[in-house]
User: Fold these one by one.
Assistant:
Number 1:
Amino acid sequence: MTGPMPAATTLEMEEDAGYQRQLHLFTQCSTEKGIELLNIGEVIARLPDRHQFLDIGAGGGHLTIPVAQQFEKTIIVEPNTKQAERFCRQFPAFCVHTASWTDVNLNDECFDLILCSHVLYYIPEWAWLSTIKKMYRHLSPEGCIVIVVQAPLGEVAQFFRSFTTYDVPIIELTRDLIEQYGEDAVGLQYFQNEIFTESRDEMVSIGLFLLLDRKFHARADEIAAYFDAHHRYGSGYRIRQDEILLVIRKIPNITETEQPYR
């Protein structure tokens, strides 16, 4: 999942077949998942244990499947029924909850790694901190939450701003997390990937995928004109995507309320 939440509107998701086509095209044309895996791999390498992995909003599973190979057990929380059904069919060893993170009940399960990649956009900003707090409660000692979000700067961010109100309050979120869990527990990494297509139609499809809301199909000609004006690259099209990887570690023997304030 990726893209901004259009402000003050009701999100109208793509039909499953259309979403799968867009997701497949994005994955083929973007370097994102490979770079994300490298960054996540560095986090995994520092974990003392690799018993349980939780992926929240696993989408097409392009991160889930390779990361799961590093853990004894994988649990998925995926609200999209058809996506969840695919996981159940293809990976019966995974435990799949067809629910939103807000609604799911994982009882006292604890995880060494919790991944939440491009999911926060589906949640109101005022609920981001409480959403992360729920993740934190399910961390094992020395476990890590890895959250991936679109950066508020860069070419994709500028594309978003040209078509919808867009902001990622990453500074405010990081500040709140440091106050909650301590400076030593919170880290930020910045990375950039490229999206390249050979045709304008493919880049427009990726633009619609990034924007999330299928109502933007009515503005496909405007989106095409934007890419013509700003992202022609040789015989194709290229746009750079700036992203942030936010890591929250659970420091042993320090409860949430006892985390040092900085």
Number 2:
Amino acid sequence: MSDFDLVVIGGGPGGYVCAIRAAQLGLSTAVVERDRMGGECLNYACIPSKTLINVAKLYDKALNGSRYGIKVEDINIDFSLLQQWRQSVVNNLVSGVEQLCKGNGVSMIKGEAVFVDRRTIAVKEGDSAREITFSKAVVATGSKPSELPNVRYDGEVVIGSKEALQLKSLPEHMVIIGGGVVGMEIACLYSRLGSKITVIELMDQLIPGYDVDVARTLQRLCMKRGMSIHLSSKVTELTVKGQSATLQVDTGKDILSIQADKVLLSVGRRPRSDEIGLDRIGVEVDQKGFIRTDSRMVTSVDNILAIGDVRGPPMLAHKAFKEGIVAAEVAAGMSSEALWKTVPDAIFTEPEIASAGLTEIMARASGLDASSTRFPFAALGRALTAGETDGFVKVVWEKGSKRVVGVQIIGPSASDMISEAALAIEMGATLDDIALTIHPHPTFPEALMEAAEAAAGQPIHQLRVTSK
């Protein structure tokens, strides 16, 4: 007899969801977590960053309130209280996750897990260790920050996103190495709070891989706010002395010398697959260390499954949620698998960015005869009432069928609006389906309806334009 029907290694978004669903399906289930329940996302990334970003938005609104007739004097940020607020939000959610696991009968085990064989793990906490047997296991160990050969974390001056969200004072000048999702969220956060921001990005656009028009709009608006952005650039040397750093940056045209009191290294993440003995039990990983699975989350070892970041990109908590449910149902003998058409994402920059489905370039590369149409927030009543008119909604569709295959948004409430777009793509909706759906007025989601109307050649609140 095994100790548990299912053991989940990792209590992050995918892991705890998987454990809860498995227990609901009648499996005796344990989740092993070496740190705090909720994992990286809840404790050190998604939740704390959005907590601070929300405060920064309020602060920025107050600073610029005079344009709306609100005059505020002597406004400032108390970083001690700010960090207490951040931690209180995190603690509340961690407690909630623990209560959900407990209420569903999931055993929570603290410690680091390593596979002994295909039916056993060793769990170590401090100086003590014990072995736990199982029928099936789910690997949900997530990912960790990558480093550069010539730039290493020291946790004080050269920091990662975790430390960046726990600062006790406002940096005077923060240099961000890597203009991807995490880097740009933190850039916008501290820019709003008053820090000088310099972004160094190796590629020729910010948020590489995203729609080019969206990336260019983000760059323009960030530079308008005073950020220095260097694309196609790399750090060739970094020297830390005391509480400051000096960076040598090759822009392809010049060698810049930049000084900063904080350097955020944000150059991607890599899977935590090399610490738990996968090679010992024959679980296959790819060249980058991601665990190979089929659409049912099953690895090369039939009683071992994998979900979330460790399984591969996109590294998103909501993808891990769904994969966790699939893995639990498969472990319980159900015929579940990952059959979704799109995994939407959201970036909490200023303004927000969200995407679902294909960009126009991706659609054409996949063989579709695709086109796109944009609707600007500057023409939307709700955006004008909020004083947030930057950005647009772009709809990508297949000519002939008018099937919507992608939506990209940069602008206010993009993270909230993208769910409608994802649903449209999952259901195979057409431009007419969205255009004929009555949207409440005045609201931000009207922009998606307006974009669909324009794409269908029937724009109302903008002049007719020739589609691409």
Number 3:
Amino acid sequence: MPGEKEVARASEFIKTFAGRKPRTWEEVYAREIIILSKMPPTRELKLQAICIGDLGIAAIPCEVYGSTGLAIKAASPFDTTMNISLANGGEGYIAPPEQHKLGGYTTWRARTSCLEELAESKIKLAVVELLIEVATARI
């Protein structure tokens, strides 16, 4: 979450383009700081796992990196596992923790990437646990 000083600086900056949409990435992210400051500090995500026969399906309400999907498939108890991104919501990108060190738009603080840095690890673990649960329940 943005701190008070960041919000104050962003509030002053957005006055320079009042009455029009932001045009530069600086203007966009100043606006994002204001929007984020009004959002709750936590959010609840709906994660799901289901199986159809021998197929495991993981549903995640975020945009998932390929490496995350492959890690879920590798840890899944199913021989075939499918990951569905942006299922049951659109909670933004979940970049793996190591990607945050590299930067890039999927890690810049905005509504499209405002989950904590460890969100990907937590989501990945929870989804694999759900896949294990549904695999066990079918036996």
Number 4:
Amino acid sequence: MIESKEGVVSRILSDGDEMQELDVEVGGRHAKAICYPPLTGSVAVGDKVLLNTTAVRLDLGSGGRHFVMANLSSPEHRMSEGAGHIMKLRYTPSQARVLCAEEEGSPHRAAIEAFSDLGGTPVVIGGLHSMVAPVCAAIKSMRQDLRIVYIMTDGACLPLAFSRTVRDLKDKQIISATVTCGNAFGGDLETVTKFSALAAARAALGADVIMVAMGVGIAGTGTRLGNAGLEVGEWVNAVAALKGEPVVVPRLSFADQRKRHVGISHHTITALSEVALARATITLPKLPPEQSDVVKRQIAASDLYEDHSIYEADGSVAIEALQANGFRVTTMGRGPEDDPAFFLACGSAAQFVCMIAGADRN
């Protein structure tokens, strides 16, 4: 199941406490690799490393890198001192201790224990990581007063450090803080469940708006039930259970060559028609008539008009906000000029949130 090879670190392309990007020599060839120091310790030029080469062998997309499994030149490193007894990546050779916000010893435990509900806080739920920047940048461009907290789920990439987008969003003060839940790790706060993640975002981090989406990448099989995007429906249920306002960004495209992703993707339709048990607001952009007709037929055929609320707005604010902040975001390799519907849907969600969100929600 795992292909592994030994390599040698030839260059460190970027160096950080949470992630190192490397050039490694493997079998006489140079390749890119990722090292996560919290899992393996950091590496230096000349170190011999054991690499997981599976993703490159399979020619995967965003996950198609080698990953350091161990530093063979320095195989032992001590666990840092401090509190925390929750393991992420549990029962694997990479399991790592974290201090979760809800456990004893956390300075946020009392706030989470005192949490009762979200009190109508809007929670934007996206099915892809590429939705995070356009939604959040658009919200902030319209409402500087809103504090946005991003929850990264464990539906795709697990280390938050892998996302340059999130680093940029924090550097530009578009998102205020991050939470990683389940087996995802590396957020400002760690949590065990999606419910405690929502509680932490609101009660411990003071979110006015919560953005929820998986990390980089998505696992899918082309089947109705075999894709990680179904978690959108699960998050609708969780937000509703905690008395928040679930807002779903549909995955829209009129550039994708795969029929199942044209118009509203089957990922979104299945999540909202078969998994979500609570009512959500689905935000749609204003589209050309022929595209709008496709979307309306899909919504009607899936009974989404009956089960959910539909909000429609222009949505162009997302594209404008990305440009204003210098973000180059793509989805499946396509930018706003190639697949505008995707980004306009993100902007529509931002407009809806700015309409209903209050700067001070108690």
